[in-house]
Amino acid sequence: MTEEIRYKILKLLAENPDISQRELAISLGVSLGKTNYCLQALKEKGWVKARNFKNNPDKRRYFYILTPKGIEEKAKVTARFLKRKLTEYQMLEIEIAQLRKEVTKQESI
Known about the structure:
- The chain is mostly helical.
- It has one domain (3-84): Orthogonal Bundle (Arc Repressor Mutant, subunit A), CATH 1.10.10.10.
- The protein contains four helices and two strands.
- It has helices at 3-15, 21-28, 32-44, 68-107; strands spanning 48-52, 62-66.
- Strands 1-2 form a two-stranded antiparallel ribbon.
- The termini are far apart.
């Protein structure tokens, strides 16, 4: 599981604990099987617990809860994800500045 997938799963579960695996897979842009595999891995690490909806007639639906360890990991993953995205952003700014110079140079010819 990539860092980005881990970040997105933890974020989505924190925001919407009653999300279905199918909805989670669609939001992540990955297969249902991969989503299930990732959720199992997060449960094994003790970051997520899955509980059945008691009053829901569809007993296959789960309520996903971030454990205290999961909340701590979400904070760490978020910080790493932000750092990586800021680095990508800075690299894009440099590339855009270079492209602008190139375009300006070509326009002056």
